[in-house]
Amino acid sequence: MSKILVTGGCGFIGSHTIVDLLDNGFEVINIDSNIRSNVGALAGIKAITGVEVPHYKVDLCDLSATRQVFEEHPDIDGIVHFAAFKAVGESVLHPLLYYKNNINSLANILECVQEFDVSHFIFSSSCSIYGNTDELPVTESTPMLKAESPYAHTKQIGEQMIESLSTVCPATGFVALRYFNPAGAHPSTLIGEASFAAPTNLVPVITETASGKREKMMVFGDDYNTRDGSCIRDYIYIMDLANAHTKALQYLQDQKNQKNFEVFNLGIGEGATVFEAINAFEKATGLSLNYEVAPRRPGDVEAIYSNYIYASKTLNWTPKGSMEDIMRTAWQWEQNRPEWSFKAG
Ligand code: WQD
């Protein structure tokens, strides 16, 4: 059974990926600083899988503490690296917080990859690396334009750091997975998107509005050049996104990669507007949402959605979840959120 180190495994995408890795026969250990996550997610994972995942409460910016985990586990076969700050708006207000945390932690984990000869490395990247592109749907060869936020810039820099390292680590396979808009929750609703500050992403804002935690929500702009005037995004069900990480690891373990640094878009290849997402929630739940149109949000791109065919063919991965699955599970999670999901620690 190959041992995989997940960093940021108490987070939204990390916790769902650990479940999929365990379901597919991997052994998993977890590093998470729990600055922006809660160790309770591991209890959710145990309730779902029966597995108690060993947890190291370590900040990857602390290289010596990070190295100790590798000294304790010389048999780490692969790493899935999620640990990073990811709030676009916050990164605009606090750029150095993002550059220091996201870049230093990546540099440290990559140093361990090189020192301990780790065979496989999966990097959590983002569609925001494409910037405000008008080449739609985006493919993996769509050029990176100027990043619209420091968060997106840390992902661009991260990919470039990994590509540089890959040229001197020929025995290691590196993959960057460019996420579009992950949403929804595990069907058990024992894990989900646990935002500790007020969420800014659309789907948790929708569910908080439906639950009454918010009196109403804003639609940021209905004057875009799209079919109904609101922005278009590519919403991908979280369990499909999680499975793509397992498939990417298996792809590297089976040595099917042509080069030792490859990138993949992870979306479903369709775009949905904000109004369409709201309608999908209302249809899936029978509830009606209280919203009003507000001015555009700075930093938003008008439309972005993926061409995911390369990932699907190459990784033997097919996203199956629908917008209905996203909205139904997100709503179930909102209604059943466990105590741990409201505070970091
Ligand atoms: C989606 C659409 C908003 C809230 C970001 C990051 C991306 C990834 C996912 C980390 C936009 C509109 C939203 C609201 C609204 N993050 N909206 N009212 O900005 O596409 O992507 O999160 O990996 O890297 O860039 O996601 O959910 O914030 O916004 O109208 O209250 O919903 O304007 O058009 P975004 P989002």
Helix-strand blueprint:
Blueprint: E1 3-7, H1 12-23, E2 27-31, H2 40-49, E3 55-56, H3 63-72, E4 76-81, H4 88-93, H5 95-115, E5 120-126, H6 150-166, E6 173-179, E7 181-183, H7 202-211, E8 217-220, E9 232-233, E10 235-237, H8 238-253, E11 261-266, E12 272-273, H9 274-285, E13 291-294, H10 309-315, H11 323-336
Parallel strand pairs: 1-2, 1-4, 2-3, 4-5, 5-6, 6-11, 7-10, 8-13
Antiparallel strand pairs: 9-12
Helix pairs in contact: 1-2, 1-8, 3-5, 5-6, 7-11, 9-11
The site of UDP-4-deoxy-4-formamido-beta-L-arabinopyranose has 19 residues, from helix 7 and strand 8.
**Taking all residues together, what is the mean pLDDT?**
96
**Assembly category:** single chain
The radius of gyration is: 19 Å
Which small-molecule species are bound to the chains here? UDP-4-deoxy-4-formamido-beta-L-arabinopyranose
Query: How many β-strand runs?
Result: 13
Shape: globular
Can you summarize the main beta sheet? 7 strands, parallel
Q: What are the segments in which pLDDT stays under 50 over at least 5 consecutive residues?
A: none
Distance between the termini: 30 Å
Give the SSE string.
EHEHEHEHHEHEEHEEEHEEHEHH
